[in-house]
Amino acid sequence: MKYYIIKRLLLTIPMLIGISIIMFVVMHLAPGDPTSMRYGLNPEVSQGARANFNRMYGLDEPLHVQYGMWIKRLLTLDFGRSLIDDRPVIDKVASRLPATVLLQAVSILLIISIAIPLGAAGGLKRGSFFDKVTTVFVFVGYAMPTFWLALILIFIFGFKLGWLPVSGMTPWYADYLPFSAKAGDLAWHLVLPVVTTAFGGLAALSRYSRSSMIEVLREPYILTARAKGLSENRVVFVHALKNALLPIVTILGLTLPALISGSFIFETIFAWPGMGRLGYEAIMNYDYPVIMGVGVMATLLTLLGIFISDVLYAVVDPRIRLGGE
Amino acid sequence: MRGAERVFLCWKRSLAFLSVAFFLGIDLPGYGAAVPRDSYVAGGISDARVLIPFLADDTASSSICELIFNGLTKVDKDLRVTGDLARSWKISEDGRLITFYLRDNVRWHDGKAFTAEDVKFTYEQILDPSNGSPYIGSYSMIREVRVLDEHTVSFEYEEPYAPALLKLGMGILPQHILRGAEDIRSSDFATRPVGTGPYRFGRWKNGEYIVLEANRDYFEGVPGIKRYVYRIIPDQAVAFLELVSGGVDSVALSPYQYRYRSRTKDFVEKIEKYKYPSHSYVYIGYNLKDPLFSDKRVRRALSYAVDTRKIIDSVLLGLGSPSTGPFLKGSPFYDESVEGYPYDPGRAEALLKEAGWEDTDGDGILDRDGVPLSFTVATNQGSRVREDTATIVQSQWAEIGVDAKIRVVAWSAFLDQFVNKKNFQAVILGWTTPIDPDIYSVWHSDSSREGGLNFVSYSNGRVDALIEEGRREFDTRKRREIYHELHGLISRDAPYTFLFVPYSTPAVNRRFKGIEPSPAGIGYNFIEWYVPEEEVKYKF
Amino acid sequence: MTSFTLTMKRIIFGIFIIAVMTLTAVFAPLVAPYDPLEMDLSPEGRLKPPSPEHFFGTDNLGRDVFSRMLYGARISLSVGFIAVIISVCIGILLGGLSGYYGGRVDALIMRFVEVMYCFPTFFLIMMVITFLGPSIVNVMVVIGLTSWPGLCRLVRAEFLSLRERDFVSSAKVQGIPDRRIIFRHILPNAMAPVYVSATLSVGAAILVESALSFLGLGVQIPRPSWGNILTAGKNYLDYAWWLTFFPGIAILLTVLSFNLVGEGLRELLDPRLRKRK
Question: Strand B374-380 vs strand B403-409: parallel, antiparallel, or unpaired?
């Protein structure tokens, strides 16, 4: 296990280098630069001021020099400063990370607690009415343009009915509220973003657990269990479900990139102060250091997700010895 | 892209944002009553960046800086320059020395007294290139800032520079806090500023909101609203829903929201909408270096063929007014008597014919010597208004046999590949119109070098001379004459087809009283706004 | 078997919808009652609710939404198809090389696949579109260039098992060049998962285009795509519901159909499920 963890960690290094090079090249090969983004056609800003800006941030250096500087700083965990507001990238990302992690974690929990039972039950009663309905349900969830769904939900529940907040995470007057009210308020604000995120993410997991269930039910040991005369409940819950769940753990890690991809849109719609929005805004503003920071952070999160699911897999399935190969 | 809008539709509007007309005679409840009440929650699409006036280059940051800081001067509700931290000023005979007499009752939010040293310090910082102020160019003609005594400071210029009075409205920073600071840009001050303005900094939750608290010691009186909150809601459709459901008290409406979405009972009961010309205009610019457009008659014809009224009605749903020149509409420098190019396709066709353009091959497109009158109009991606305008202009030109293709390009690439390299035929773009009429950077032939803002390469000797004269002249009446003449000259040369000035259309919750729209907008007298006791929403 | 007929029903339903959408897209100029770009700027012409005259109403510039939807189908579907063609080509090529040769080639390609896997692709797509400019071509290419890793893995797995088979070794003995073995001998046998995955990806690509449109990075107006019609309508959610409803439903139905077909194919082609029928 220890060996596996170390190996995993070491593997992230070439991966980060690869990703950062891809991002660097995409950003810098494109026409345009942060200064024209920001000061282009602004009669108040002279050309000299723009050149000065480029010099201050090293944007006038050749590409490989800039990349070298970036890597060198990264070794000391310095992601540089934002071109937009001069704040350290690490601070900006850190201040936005909790909101994203909170939203994603709650969504994943919701997805797990809905998708697995739905899928497993569907697999168990394959072809039943329930199976058909849930299949359509999860497919529709996947096929729906998420921002459309988000807007519809905001419109109905936030605006027309007024049951839920329209947008935002913490209201500005939260500081004037007692702690319990604050927590409740946060939960309240979470409902719509979580529901939207989860609805779109149900499909993969529930389809997977459905087919996994179907497969497991055909295994000889289930047939044996049934032949032994064990109660159907026991067969299903103890033998089938447990074995069907094993491979599902691995797919969890893979849903993470999809969720993070979704966050770029959800966070913008719901005015959620997370990393996805930070990344989107950074791209729009050509804020190179922040783009790199968010990209690296999103990759790390994904790696972490995969890592956790690997470890979980090893924990639930004693046959697997990580790093044993 | 939102960045694009921000870049040119904003900046100096901020100067107009908060200026105060203080009528001693009128007793406004709340205002001056020493009990600020309630909170005002403004919704905006993006977060502030940096709360240092000379670094702020986006709407959010500048409008918040306006509440926290004061400059030497400001503009009043009618867009005239008036004193802010300066009680009055004197301009020397030769126009090169401006002496400001400062108020002596001003204190920083931390209680220290404001003095002339703060002024000198601030301008030293702006002029220090290592601070990276984007506005450094506006102050490059300052030769020296001298502190004459605690409340008197003078600015010596290389040569007379009339826009100086407005430019010196930049927010003043406290030298007692910042002196010796290593790097102002990244100091704590940039995120927790201390100023002299009507509101003091409260807290800033990145990406969510900024809270400002009323400054009860403000030198012009106590603001009527206890808190100013800026909430960030990136999506405009969602922001509107927040407005109507009460999550925010004010947002900028889109023309569609203004026209169609504001009729519901909920809206009418709770929200008041306003409209006034914004400080910007949208135009079609022709590359005068392109042989197609070197003939003035062609440009004039194209201008006559555009039905501005119809564009305003369809793109802005009537929320705009036609424009005929580069000056701020409603200011004394804009010459209302210039007729521009009222829609007249017949005249357009006649002019084109005169210039030799006729449809000889019967394909519906005019041609001359076998060359069709066909060109590309480029605009930046992300501006709905410009894209829709392009679509309509294209169809209007088609009616007189002019074939225009539309090309929509991402902002940065658009500037880099088309505008800066002068590698375009026609563009649809917008300019902000500064309150000061100096148009050197856009219209003087000197600004037509590569990268300059006169990218259409307009050059007219008389115009150059007038622009130079105008920026040396402090007398408003004389300046008026100069700029009126300029307005007529530019209109006749038609390097641009001036299209329209869009309206700003903010909406504000009705519980706020004391709002008086003026040419400067509605924000100029924010400290006089108040909420009647019984309507207060946020009681803490 | 009931589940078999159910699967077939779903596939047929999906294919039917896809066929209808594709046909309307191909014959849009014949079917469309109006020019999708023609505006009616009179106050009465704008934002007209659905009527026999305008089946899906008109938009803010008085354009016929039905006609725009038809032309939008062209763009949305071609984004989906072309993006997938690109991704399938890359996926097959790299997956084939990786699976066939194994060793270093495999290790290298798989490292690259892992990098692409761990990178939130949408972020990369947003970056590329922002920096290179939004155009229909860029959207297609970028979606194609970022969506191949899953497919690559599938192809590689198939190749790994197929290359040990007799017909491959006999082909090698005969001295048939590798290229020929890969494309003529192994590939046809490895296509089953490719069909499934490609079908599913078309739906995904259409969704990505609509998401990009929402951020202003999709196909550019005035050219209609379902995504940008939907996005343009979001400001009129209650005032003109038809502006968001029809494109939303069109995207939903189309993506749903591709998924039904893809999932159905998977069930039909999956040997483990098939054998026991």
Answer: parallel
Q: Is the peptide bond before A193 cis (omega within 30 degrees of 0)?
A: no
pLDDT score of C3 more than 70: no
Q: How confident is the model at residue A73 (pLDDT cuts 50, 70, 90)?
A: confident
Is A147 in contact with C211 (CB distance < 8 Å)? Answer: yes
Domains of chain C: 3-33+53-276 (1.10.3720.10)
Smallest CA–CA separation between B382 and chain C, in Å? 7
pLDDT over 70 at B51, yes or no: yes
* Residue environment code for C253-265, b if the CB has 16+ CB neighbours within 10 A, otherwise e: bbbbbbbbbbbbb
CA–CA dist C218, C223 (Å, integer): 11
Give the gap in angstroms from C-alpha A140 to the nearest C-alpha of chain B: 24
Contacts of B317 (CB under 8 A, 6+ apart): B255, B256, B258, B259
Spatial strand order in the sheet of B97-102 = B86-91, B97-102, B152-157, B142-149
* Predicted pLDDT of residue A255: 73
Summarised one tens digit per residue, pLDDT across range B10-26 is 333 333 333 333 333 33
Which of A261, A284, A288 is the best substitution to test chain C (most C C-beta atoms within 10 A)? A261
Residues 368-407 of B with CB under 8 A from C: 381-382, 387-388, 391-392, 395, 406
> SS3 of C42, please?
coil
Q: State the count of interchain CB pairs (< 8 A) between A and B.
A: 174
CA distance C195 to B214: 65
pLDDT tens-place string over residues C24-72? 899 988 888 888 888 777 777 778 888 888 888 888 778 888 999 999 9
Hey, are the CB atoms on C123 and A279 less than 8 Å from each other? yes
C235–B392: do the CB atoms touch at under 8 Å? no
**pLDDT tens per residue, range B373-400:** 999 999 987 788 898 899 899 999 999 9
The DSSP annotation for C221-276 comes to TTS--HHHHHHHHGGGTTTTTHHHHHHHHHHHHHHHHHHHHHHHHHHHH-HHHHHT
Judge whether B133 and B445 are in contact, CB under 8 Å: no
Using only C-alpha atoms, chain B has a radius of gyration, in whole angstroms, of 25
H helices within chain A, ranges in order?
A: 2-29, 34-39, 47-56, 63-75, 89-124, 129-143, 146-153, 179-217, 220-227, 232-234, 241-269, 275-284, 288-316
- Per-chain mean pLDDT for chain B: 88
Cα B328 from Cα B479, distance rounded (Å):
14
CB contact under 8 Å between C211 and A299, yes or no, is no
User: Of B449, B399, B456, B423, which is closest to residue B284 (Cα–Cα)?
Assistant: B456
What pLDDT digit, counting tens, does each position of B291-344 carry? 999 999 999 999 999 999 999 998 898 999 999 999 998 888 999 999 999 999
DSSP letter at B538? -
Please report residues of C whose CB lies closer than 8 A to that of B391: 37, 39, 61, 222
Query: CB–CB of A41 and B135 under 8 A?
Result: no
Tell which residue, B342, B351, B359, B248, has the closest CA to residue B304.
Answer: B342
Judged by CB atoms closer than 8 Å, whether chains meet at A143 and C203 is answered as yes
Residue A87 contacts C where some CB pair is shorter than 8 Å: no
Q: Which residue of B has its CA nearest to A48?
A: B137
From the number of C-beta atoms within 10 Å of its C-beta (0-12, 13-18, 19+), residue B97 rates as middle
The answer to whether the beta carbons of residues B374 and B404 sit under 8 Å apart is yes
- Kindly compute the dihedral angle of the four CA atoms of residues B258, B262, B268, B271, in this order, to the nearest 10 degrees: -50
C119 reaches A (C-beta below 8 A):
yes
Q: Both tokens of residue B205? A: 């939750």
Q: Which tokens belong to B261? A: 């979405």
Domains in chain A, please, with CATH? Answer: 2-26+99-324 (1.10.3720.10)
